[in-house]
Amino acid sequence: MPLSQEQWIEALSLAPHPEGGWFREAYRASESIPRDALPERFTGERSFSTSIYYLLGPGDFSALHRIRQDELWHFYDGSPLLVEVIHPDGRAEQLKMGRDLSAGQTPMGVVPAGSWFGAHVATEDGYSLVGCTVAPGFDFEDFEMPSRAELLEQFPSHRKLIERLTR
Questions:
Q1: Rounded CA separation 135/111 (Å)
Q2: Which InterPro entries match (predicted)?
Q3: Angle at 41 between CA 37 and CA 42, to 5 degrees
């Protein structure tokens, strides 16, 4: 029998995430990359890689944000998840995360570094459990979550998406 959203939250010791949903860091590499070996956009050294569990429930969403690294998404359980991406050039893309390959879903997807992105569950009453892997490893210094007004000014053609995925 499948686990409920609450059972996953308890079993994985998930906590509320600032962008919405629930998360817990599951892995952080013990080795790190020195600052002088990283691109200029990084302010300090970073772990080789980090990974989190991330869960979104009914009616919740991951607010639009961006980080300095590529983010690899892995689908684990629940309803399909839609990851909405606005690339730096203004092009929008939707990653359909899930197990039904015939419906255009994929168990893994990539959000390129510097792209704005957020996510929501594809069904009204479902939840989605995914994992996110980042290399070089994530640090909250790499995280940026602008206001709705800032995003609308930059991407007015994506008004509907921005209004749906900002608070």
A1: 12
A2: Cupin_DUF985 (IPR009327), RmlC-like_jellyroll (IPR014710), RmlC_Cupin_sf (IPR011051), YML079W-like (IPR039935)
A3: 55
pLDDT per position as a tens digit, 56-113: 999 999 999 999 999 999 999 999 999 999 999 999 999 999 999 999 999 999 999 9
Contacts of residue 104, Cβ cutoff 8 Å, sequence gap at least 6 = 96
In total, the chain counts a number of residues equal to 167
Residue 157 gets which letter from DSSP? G
**Please, what is the Cα angle at 69 between 65 and 75, to 5 degrees?**
75
What token pair was written down for 5?
A: 């959203």
**What is the pTM for the complete model shown?**
0.94
**Band (2; pLDDT cuts 50, 70, 90):** confident
Q: CA–CA separation, 123 vs 111, rounded Å?
A: 22
Res. 1 pLDDT band, cuts 50 70 90: confident
